[in-house]
Specification:
Layout lengths: L1 H12 L4 H10 L1 H22 L5 H9 L1 H11 L6
Length: 82
């Protein structure tokens, strides 16, 4: 999990010069922390905790539905109609 998120962060940082990225991150530290917790830390921790009691087949099905839940949230909450 840490490797996957770290590789994604490296690609995002590489898109801009490092000084510009650091300045932007300082201005947006709190929103970035909140998004990081909601999009990375909490789902991974909760999924790992759920795997302690669920069968492997059930967790693989739940994990496969992640894009569907993302689309549903975007449609209902963000009013994304595309």
């Amino acid at each position: 999990m840490a490797l996957r998120v770290g590789i994604g962060a490296l690609f995002l940082i590489a898109r801009r010069p490092l000084a510009q990225t650091a300045a932007t991150m300082k201005k947006r530290a709190l929103p970035l922390l909140i998004v990081g917790i909601l999009n990375s830390a909490a789902p991974f921790c909760l999924f790992a905790f759920a795997e302690l009691t669920l069968l492997a087949g059930a967790t693989s099905i739940i994990n496969a539905t992640t894009p569907l839940w993302g689309a549903l949230v975007a449609w209902l909450w963000l009013k994304d109609r595309r």
